[in-house]
Design goal:
heterodimer; A: 293 residues; alpha+beta; 12 helices; 19% strand; B: 197 residues; mainly alpha; 4 helices; 0% strand; extended; structural constituent of ribosome (chain A)
Chain lengths: 293, 197
């Protein structure tokens, strides 16, 4: 994911100036120090001054996905096509050893019933040793029936929004109820960025800071997959904090850990159910990188 | 006996007379010990053995080495790809199924279903491509915003993650896994043929 974006680092400054129009103070603060050929030491000191001048607070959020555990059900056209394919393959195929065994057994039975008993005495001694293929098939069917697979769909678990086991055929996203400003909102778990750590570490901290969460996740890359920025209402806006930028990082759930208490403030939702819980502006931004494939 | 004696008496004085003048041997029975080494047949044979035999042995060895080298130069046999060799079982005629003839309606139905399927699959594919493009666009925007924020974090975001790979994930199965299920051990005999060159 990061490879195609390396080109951006080498774009000339003029292009950048024209593309992104920001406030004047921000521009000068940024342009003086931004250049890819600077050494690390100057960058760090400049970063502090840069961060101090930027009015946006940084936050990192984690988009934790539980990938589907069972295959999805077939749509009607898929069912029809599956049947058609099986039929066509059967027509084009040759007889297998098992089928030839069945045919030969049928032949032998027919001959035994139609012929006189003289020739049967010779065959009787042989038949006692031979196992009919039909018997083999029956014994295999018996063994299959003795195994009971776990049910694919469990309606009661599906309704429990906090359980990881719900809707095993779809991919689920974790939402947490967190305090933003003065109100409690449902959104992807996020936390404020601190000095000295990369945004990915912030996202990992966000995941770990969830109450009663024993989630083990694999973060997919160092680069964020989406961004949502909002400006604070004018009453609260100051020189140094105009708004917040939330960077989203994608992670795949590897181990859910112990089941959470029912009062926990997080919820596992399918992509179609996200609409009910998220605010519309947030939803449009988040909708793009949550893949339901 | 007496004739021999008389002959020997006659010949001896002749030889003695000649022997006084010549040192060369006249008859082999009376040759002195010193002249053994210098006689012509005795001189030549041992030296001939020393020359020819080592040469002959060396020539033999060289010929053998040349033969070995010629044998080694032959390229090794290719390992046969078993997938490309149809087993004799499949060419057995008794195994062919009697194909039932399909009615016209059924053929039409099949053709229509195949067309619908290709349409459906194309829609699915276009939707997937679109979704991936949207996700990439979202990421590009995020990286632009990050670059505006801080150069250092941007550089850190661009670095590849060495700990990510090898990454493996079990795909969707037909039925969910049963908790506390003791799966029976599967025994198998591996009969794959291993070829060495």
């Amino acid at each position: 994911m990061a490879a195609p974006f390396r080109r951006m680092a080498s774009r000339p400054l003029l292009q950048l100036l024209s593309c992104f129009s920001r406030t004047a103070t921000r521009n000068t603060g940024f342009r003086q120090f931004s250049s890819t050929s600077l050494c690390r030491a100057t960058l760090q000191t400049d970063c502090v001054t840069e961060r101090a001048s930027s009015p946006w607070t940084l936050m990192a959020a984690v988009c934790l996905q539980r990938l589907p555990v069972i295959s999805a059900d077939d749509t009607p056209i898929e069912q029809q096509f599956r049947q058609l394919m099986q039929q066509m393959e059967l027509e084009k195929s040759l007889f297998s050893d098992h089928e030839i065994g069945l045919l030969e057994d049928a032949e032998r039975l027919r001959r035994k019933q139609s012929n006189s008993y003289e020739s049967d005495e010779e065959e009787d001694s042989r038949n006692q040793d031979i196992v009919l293929t039909q018997d083999l098939e029956d014994s295999w069917e018996q063994k299959l029936k003795s195994f009971e697979p776990a049910p694919r769909v469990r309606a009661d678990v599906d309704k429990d929004l906090t359980s990881v086991e719900r809707c095993l055929a779809d991919s689920l996203v974790l939402l947490a109820e967190q305090q933003v400003g003065s109100e409690k909102l449902w959104l992807l778990p996020h936390i404020q960025w601190q000095e000295g750590e990369t945004l990915r570490q912030t996202a990992e901290r966000a995941l770990a800071s969830l109450p009663a969460a024993g989630f083990k996740a694999t973060f997919l890359s160092n680069a964020p997959c989406g961004v949502y920025k909002y400006k604070l209402p004018k009453a609260v806006r100051t020189e140094s904090s105009v708004g917040t930028k939330v960077f989203f990082f994608r992670a795949i759930l590897s181990d859910s850990g112990p089941p959470a208490a029912p009062n926990s403030s997080f919820v596992w939702l399918k992509k179609s159910e996200l609409q009910q819980y998220l605010k519309p502006a947030y939803m449009t931004k988040v909708d793009r990188f949550i893949l339901d494939l | 006996m007496c004739t021999y004696m008389s002959l020997s008496r006659q010949t001896v004085p002749l030889s003695l007379l000649s022997g006084e003048h010549h040192h060369a041997v006249q008859s082999p029975w009376f040759a002195p010990v010193v002249t053994l080494k210098t006689s012509a047949p005795l001189r030549a044979e041992p030296k001939k053995k020393k020359k020819v035999d080592p040469r002959r042995e060396q020539l033999l060895r060289d010929r053998l080495k040349k033969k070995l080298r010629r044998l080694e130069k032959v390229p090794p046999e290719y390992i046969p790809i078993e997938d490309f060799i149809t087993p004799a079982k499949c060419k057995d005629e008794t195994r062919e199924r009697s194909t039932p003839s399909l009615s016209f309606e059924e053929k039409e139905g099949r053709a229509l279903l195949l067309k619908e399927w290709s349409h459906y699959k194309r829609e699915q594919h276009m939707a997937e491509v679109k979704a991936i493009e949207l996700a990439l666009e979202a990421q590009r925007e995020a990286l632009e915003e990050l670059k505006l924020e801080s150069e250092e974090l941007y550089e850190a975001a661009l670095k590849p993650d060495p700990l990510l790979f090898p990454f493996s994930h079990e795909g969707p199965v037909n039925t969910p896994p049963k908790t506390q299920y003791d799966a029976p051990d599967g025994k198998y005999n591996d009969i794959t043929r291993v070829y060495t060159q």
